[in-house]
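Quiz preparation item.
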């Protein structure tokens, strides 16, 4: 399905050019923040279920999609200034934020540090467990962790056809939503003549390094907006995530956890309707006392 939008070029704080997308709508502003290595097109399956209820905005994160990919600027304070630039460009004072994976981390930090600009936060299987530390996923050093990804963060493909074939074979459960995303994805041509992902391995390493030692619980302690947690049931660390969410909810003024049955990490590709319904229901049930904080 073609999703109509207006495309905008947006200058961030350090001169990085971001590409923003306005999908229209007349409700509260809702900003969609995509996953690491993704693009705004990851939201195409869910936007049709949301666009009658919100003014929908999204953008390619720096280093992704049609936004610039500088050698610097991948701290969370940088991503916060990027998101602030997007909101200012579209003249949005406050918005609901919806993140996926890495996008949840971007949204969480923004919410913690720019509280006055956030109506609510929805985290789709992201910022719901730490990489390291007590009950974290890893007990290795950053160097050891990055070594495990050697050759995987920016693989070479002989052609666009091979790129697409690999995704068909490995990105499961394969369906028409994933097929559409891959068909519309525009990989980059590398200097060695091969085809690669838009986001380079160097950029991926920078972002992974920024995330690795963060304790997200310290960020949640600063959040005063309603938060919706959407952990993926089929992820291997699902039970650990539920425990972490229980800790994160302590001190939050209002929060809910919704588990979509059989959901995977990027659940917008196979549970778009259920995902949109969960977001709409959450927003409709935010207590009046919390809405007054807007």
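Solution:
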């Amino acid at each position: 399905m073609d999703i109509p939008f207006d495309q905008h070029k947006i200058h961030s704080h350090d001169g990085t050019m971001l590409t923003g997308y306005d999908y229209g709508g007349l409700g509260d502003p809702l900003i969609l923040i995509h996953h690491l290595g993704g693009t705004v097109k990851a939201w195409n399956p869910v936007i049709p279920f949301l666009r009658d209820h919100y003014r929908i905005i999204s953008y390619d994160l720096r280093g992704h999609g049609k936004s610039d990919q500088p050698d610097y600027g991948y701290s969370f304070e940088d991503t916060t200034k990027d998101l602030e630039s997007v909101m200012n460009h579209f003249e949005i004072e406050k918005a609901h934020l919806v993140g996926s994976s890495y996008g949840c981390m971007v949204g969480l930090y923004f919410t913690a540090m720019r509280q006055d600009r956030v109506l609510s936060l929805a985290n789709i299987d992201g910022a719901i467990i730490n990489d390291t530390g007590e009950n974290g996923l890893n007990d290795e050093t950053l160097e050891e962790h990055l070594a495990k990804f050697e050759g995987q963060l920016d693989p070479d493909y002989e052609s666009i056809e091979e790129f697409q074939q690999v995704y068909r074979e490995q990105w499961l459960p394969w369906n028409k939503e994933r097929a559409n995303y891959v068909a519309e994805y525009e990989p980059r041509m590398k200097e060695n003549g091969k085809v690669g992902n838009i986001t380079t391995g160097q950029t991926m390493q920078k972002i992974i390094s920024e995330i690795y030692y963060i304790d997200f619980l310290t960020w949640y302690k600063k959040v005063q907006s309603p938060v919706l947690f959407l952990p993926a049931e089929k992820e291997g660390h699902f039970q650990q995530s539920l425990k972490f969410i229980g800790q994160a909810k302590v001190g939050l003024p209002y929060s809910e956890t919704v588990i979509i049955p059989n959901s995977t990490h990027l659940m917008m590709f196979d549970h778009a309707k259920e995902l949109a319904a969960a977001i709409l229901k959450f927003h409709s049930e935010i207590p009046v006392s919390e809405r007054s904080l807007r």
